[in-house]
Every structure is written in C-alpha cells, then in structure tokens.
Amino acid sequence: MKKNVLRNLGLAIAAIALFSMASCKSQQAVVKPSDDMKEVVTPCSDADFHSDSKFFRGTGIGTSQDQSTAKRKANLDASANMAASINRTLKSVSDRYTNERQISDASQFEEKFEQMTRDVVNQQLNNVATVCSKTFTKDGKYTTYMAVEVSKDDLLNNIKDKISKDQKLQLDYDKSKYEQVFNEEMDKLANDQK
Predict the structure, then answer these.
(1) Is the pLDDT of residue 124 over 60?
(2) Of 36-40, 133-137, 149-153, 188-192, which one has max mean pLDDT?
C-alpha cells in the first residue's frame, strides 16, 4: 500500500510538472491571426501621437449621435489621458528629485511641490494643441478620434515660474538638477512608448 501511495504521488508530481511545462511553453507561443481576423487601425494613435522627449500627448475617442458632442468627448478623453501621463511623470520626477537632494523637510516640500505641479498641469490643459482629429459616421452616430499635446518646455517653464513665486520652494529648488531629472524622465517616457 505504501508503494501505491508513493507511486501515485510520483505520478501526480510528474503530471503537475508536465502540465506546468506545457502551460509555460504555451505562454511563449506567438498568436497568429486567423484568416477571418482583421487588424483594427485606430486613427490618431500611431507612434506620431505618443509622448516623446519634447511633448506630452494623449489620445481619445468619443461617440455620440451629435457630432460636436463626439468631438467634446474625444477631447476630454485625450486630455484626461495626457494629464494622467503628465501627473505620473511629474510624480516620478518629484520623487527622484526629493530623494537625490538633501531637503530639510522632504515630505512638506514634496507635498507642496506636487500641489504646485497639479496647478500647473491644470493650467496647461487650457493650452492644449489638437494635433489630430478625425470624425467618422456610421448608423447615425459620429465617432471622433483625437490626439492632443502640450510642450514639455512650456510645462517646465510654468513650473519654474511657479517656484520662483514661492519662497519656501525656492530654498530647496535646484533648477538645473530638476531639469536634469525631468529630461531623464521624459526620455524614459518616450522610450516606453516605442
């Protein structure tokens, strides 16, 4: 009986190992489209409309029975996506900058700095440029695809202007170090988009 238990246990372990190896191998397999599958090409969303080292960009889609509403929805979606990208990048810059600098009250600086950058982002979202907008209609509905952008330099200059007006932030702010970290994060963002 002990032999049967050990043999069954050995078979179970072998089965689990084979199943694990088979499932790992299947994850590495490349999915090939079948003949009846077609690639969907989304307007205003190719590599030209991704963030790079010079611009933050966002893409969006809006659908409505009213053409202007579809455009507004697409603009809101694109702006929200761009704002999320900006906020993630600025949070990374702020974290890295604070960690690399010797700041007396780092948490207070970071909190104040993040609030200031949020204000700048909100202000910049009023100065967004639409770089692509395409509208299609089908079955009485309009669908708009849109890409928007804001210049990295404009954003950085607005951050510097805000800091220059805040004496507390100015004490802990090293312009060249912040720009260096900011540019590194922009390069990283551009490489992640490729």
Answers:
(1) yes
(2) 133-137
Instruction: Count CB atoms within 10 A of the CB of residue 16.
Output: 10
Residue-range domain boundaries for the chain: 47-193
Q: Is 57:151 a contact under the CB 8 Å cutoff?
A: no
At 103, is the pLDDT very low, low, confident or very high (cuts 50, 70, 90)?
low
Question: pLDDT category, 130, cuts 50, 70, 90?
Answer: very high
Q: What is the distance between the alpha carbons of residues 101 and 88, in angstroms, rounded to a whole number?
A: 20
Task: Look at the block and give the residue holding tokens 């050990």.
Answer: 6
Mean pLDDT of the chain: 80
**Fold assignment, 47-193:** Thiol Ester Dehydrase; Chain A (3.10.129)
Q: What is the DSSP string of the chain?
A: -HHHHHHHHHHHHHHHHHHHHHHHHHHHSPP---TT--PPPPTT-SGGGS--SSEEEEEEEEEESSHHHHHHHHHHHHHHHHHHHHHHHHHHHHHHHHHHS--TTHHHHHHHHHHHHHHHHHHHGGGPEEEEEEEEEETTEEEEEEEEEEEHHHHHHHHHHHHHT-HHHHHH--HHHHHHHHHHHHHHHHHHH-
